[in-house]
């Protein structure tokens, strides 16, 4: 076994729990002598999260949209990771599975024959939004439970949005997990101390952990359609994709980069969607390129370095068909929000 295996860190967590924000905070603290590779998996078909990382020489970001790494994209993940390790030679790899992704299949790949002498899986970190514990649909979701059960450590997020009571409930919930987590950290302002990542050891053996039947049933033929390097849609002909699995539906849309959106109209429209809708997007607006991110009904707007196209992903519970139908009707027409 090689003594120079590349450490791999898995940052898991349910939809909208702050995984990408946490990874951004780690990148800000990255040792100057290290090169990192970030693999970002998304449930949606076109990929939004990779657009939210700035291009830099010491951090390579690869998006893997269109399914979950433990099932639909297992083959694609293996190929992408082999390519990243060979071409970029990173000192460290961080993998962010989809919010509906199950860690068991990912561990199987990373501990398989192809990578057993190449990488070593360090502590699995799960992000937990305390507010989700108040939602029976989420708390009872098999994937939500398994993500926390397989985690070696837990980062409790949303410090500015959750109440003191919700935070106390989350801490109590985590302390009752068995075996005890190596650490539990309450994140403020999206910042996780880098030492918690660098000083962690290898993940547990996770004996008996397996991909649940609900995930096995959605395994499909691997695809790289909708990847990071897709050419943009034609002017006036936005591209749309939908996917449904594990009780949720994703609506994804892309527009030509020269199409402009009115930021006020866009923010008002997205803010008007039901609080159950998870919204992520990057748009070319009259004020420049902007990121829009909404979780639990709260919309944030920031600048974006992305220029390839405008794109939007909205994930809703399957029973919220009104939101899904409304999105397709109002956003699939070019300039609907301009």
**Unreliable runs, pLDDT <50, ≥5 residues?**
215-229
Instruction: Give the termini separation.
Output: 57 Å
- Which homologous superfamily in CATH is the superfamily of the largest domain? P-loop containing nucleotide triphosphate hydrolases
**In total, how many beta strands?**
14
- CATH topology (level 3) name of the largest domain: Rossmann fold
Biggest pleated-sheet summary: 8 strands, parallel
Oligomer: single chain
Shape: globular
Order of helices and strands: EHEEHEHEEHHEHEHHEEHEEEEH
What is the CATH top level name of the largest domain? Alpha Beta
Strand proportion? 25-35%
Give me the number of helical elements: 10
Class derived from helix and strand content: alpha/beta
Task: Using the 3D structure, state the CATH architecture of the largest domain.
Answer: 3-Layer(aba) Sandwich
Radius of gyration: 19 Å
Mean pLDDT: 80
Number of domains: 2
Tell me roughly what share of residues is in helical segments: 25-40%
Organism: Halomonas qinghailakensis
GO cellular component, one term: cytoplasm
Function: Zinc chaperone that directly transfers zinc cofactor to target proteins, thereby activating them. Zinc is transferred from the CXCC motif in the GTPase domain to the zinc binding site in target proteins in a process requiring GTP hydrolysis.
Domain CobW C-terminal: 250-332
């Amino acid at each position: 076994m090689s003594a120079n295996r590349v450490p791999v860190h898995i940052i898991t967590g349910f939809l909208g729990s702050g995984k990408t924000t946490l990874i951004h905070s780690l990148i800000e603290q990255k040792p100057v002598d290290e090169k990192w590779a970030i693999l970002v998996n998304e449930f949606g078909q076109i990929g939004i999260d990779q657009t939210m990382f700035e291009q830099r020489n010491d951090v390579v970001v690869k998006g893997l949209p269109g399914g979950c790494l433990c099932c639909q994209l297992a083959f694609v993940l293996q190929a992408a990771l082999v390519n990243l390790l060979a071409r970029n030679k990173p000192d460290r790899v961080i993998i962010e599975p989809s919010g509906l992704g199950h860690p068991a299949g990912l561990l199987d790949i990373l501990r398989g024959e192809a990578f057993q002498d190449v990488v070593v899986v360090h502590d699995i970190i799960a992000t937990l939004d305390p507010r989700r514990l108040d939602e029976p649909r989420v708390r009872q979701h098999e994937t939500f439970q398994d993500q926390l059960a397989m985690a070696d450590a837990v980062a409790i997020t949303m410090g500015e949005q959750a109440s003191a009571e919700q935070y106390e409930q989350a801490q109590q919930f985590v302390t009752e997990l068995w075996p005890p987590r190596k650490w539990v950290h309450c994140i403020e302002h999206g910042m996780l101390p880098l030492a918690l990542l660098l000083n962690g050891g290898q993940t547990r053996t996770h004996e008996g952990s397996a991909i649940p039947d609900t995930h096995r049933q959605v395994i499909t033929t691997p695809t790289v359609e909708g990847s990071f390097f897709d050419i943009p849609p034609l002017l006036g002909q936005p591209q749309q994709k939908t996917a449904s699995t594990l009780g949720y539906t994703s609506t994804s849309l892309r527009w030509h980069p020269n199409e402009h959106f009115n930021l006020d109209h866009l923010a008002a429209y997205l803010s008007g969607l039901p609080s159950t809708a998870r919204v992520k997007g990057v748009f070319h607006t009259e004020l420049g390129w902007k990121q829009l991110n909404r979780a639990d009904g709260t919309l944030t707007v920031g600048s974006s370095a992305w220029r390839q196209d405008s794109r939007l992903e909205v994930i809703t519970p399957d029973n919220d068909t009104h939101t899904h139908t409304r999105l397709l009707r109002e956003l699939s027409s070019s300039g609907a929000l301009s």
